[in-house]
Amino acid sequence: MAPPTKKRKLSIASGSFKNKTTKSSLADFINNVQKKREVTADSILDFNFHKKRVRIFSQVQLVPDYCEGIVYWMSRDCRVQDNWAFLFAQKLALKNQVPLHVCYCLVEKYLDASLRQFHYLIKGLQKVAAECKKLNILFHLLEGSGDNVLPQWIIDHKIGAVVCDFNPLRIPTSWVENAKNKFSQDVPFIQVDAHNIVPCWVAADKQVHTIYSMRCKINSKLEEYLTDFPPVIKHPYTSNFVPEPIDWDRAIETREADKTVGPIEWANPGYDEAMKTLKSFLEKRLKIYADKRNDPTEDALSNLSPWFHFGQISAQRVALCVQEYKLQYTESVNAFLEVAIVRRELTDNFCFYCENYDNLKGADNWAQKTLDKHRNDKRSYIYTLDQLSKAQTHDDLWNSAQLQLVNEGKMHGSIRMYWGKKILEWTLSPDDALKYAIYLNDHYSIDGRDPNGYAGCMRSICGIHDTNFVERAVFGQVRYMNYNGCKKKFNIDTFVERYGGKKHKYISAK
């Protein structure tokens, strides 16, 4: 493959675009981004694709002679444009002059996901399918995990190569590993990291334990990888078969998920909705991000986490857009890119290289030892998972945070650490605390079941990516947080009034 492109390089340190202060319509905003793709290259064939974004799993690399199509096995990155995996699949299809297919393999149940998350996912996929149709690319929704349903589908339709997404989590990784052994031996099987700006396996070859170390690793490579995208174009080769009809509403209704946790109202799925939120962030909230981002009573965040999680917008595209404001809002741009790139990609590194990313064995040795030492310390309060789920504690701030999670499917980042640490303080053991925190996050948060979520719970309870502090009861040397500390950072009464958390009388369990 050719070396990486040198065209339109950008990095955190070198952002040089001047912000156009005139406000445009959403359609103009989306069209301007599309024009940037078209300026970058006419198609992926005219773009020097960075070969290090790719991992080839199969022994063979050449598409077989019988090939009648290429398939992109979509899973983590559910979008058409600004998607390196989709682009690589189209590159293979164009080179071999065959049709391009997209398959999403929908499982009946996924961990503790509720109807809320399945609804967001499937409604987003419906929009992906419509966009694919406009581009003469067939979208297929298959029932079951990819390792079970794709092997025969590939044989039946004479597919010549499979391109899949990268996901560091245990279950998606197992699907890919199993598929390696089930796919035909003469079909190339390729994985592309379309989620991270610097591919996870390129950023580091082992687990990184501090934010500082990850920052150094990312920044040393960012200029090479933070480039613009070429467009996914209308595909010139048409398939000789059509996809099975998709009943999108039935796809949602038939998931095995808690249907009492319904869809969120503040964020609608799909690329256009993500761009709408990005546009409002750039115009209204980015300017106060540096000073107000840690205050949960202020509207200063990007609010893009749902679309990031489901891959409906590219973090790389967002970084490129935010960077255009570097000269105008330098501190805010730097602060946002630190979170959106360095800290977000650190969580992928953690889950990719740490097998026990969701249990105490994944904590650093010092944290395991200190938590075990204080395992049997007396707790002033002990709450059940049911009480925590219903926000029935003595702490109105914690209850308000939990109600925000239940009702909105999100929790402000500055509250999440407090929320997690109180679960450690109020449960029988650190094992229970971690289990409860992960369940609540996975069940209610629209972006649950994500490396960010697992790393966040592990940091709150097990101190990953953190340092040790003065020893105290229950926490040992893991960082402690309390109510009075939050008072110094923001107006607790305002937050509590907004979400309605009440102080419940504590009744000790017998």
Automatic annotation (TrEMBL):
InterPro entries: Crypto/Photolyase_FAD-like_sf (IPR036134), Crypto/Photolyase_N_sf (IPR036155), DNA_photolyase_2 (IPR008148), DNA_photolyase_N (IPR006050), Photolyase_Class-2 (IPR052219), Rossmann-like_a/b/a_fold (IPR014729). Keywords: DNA damage, DNA repair, DNA-binding, FAD, Flavoprotein, Lyase. It comes from Papilio machaon (Old World swallowtail butterfly). This is Deoxyribodipyrimidine photo-lyase. One of its GO terms (biological process) is UV protection. The keyword DNA repair applies. Pfam families: DNA_photolyase. Its EC number is 4.1.99.3. SUPFAM superfamilies: Cryptochrome/photolyase FAD-binding domain, Cryptochrome/photolyase, N-terminal domain. It catalyses: cyclobutadipyrimidine (in DNA) = 2 pyrimidine residues (in DNA). It is an enzyme of class 4 (lyase).
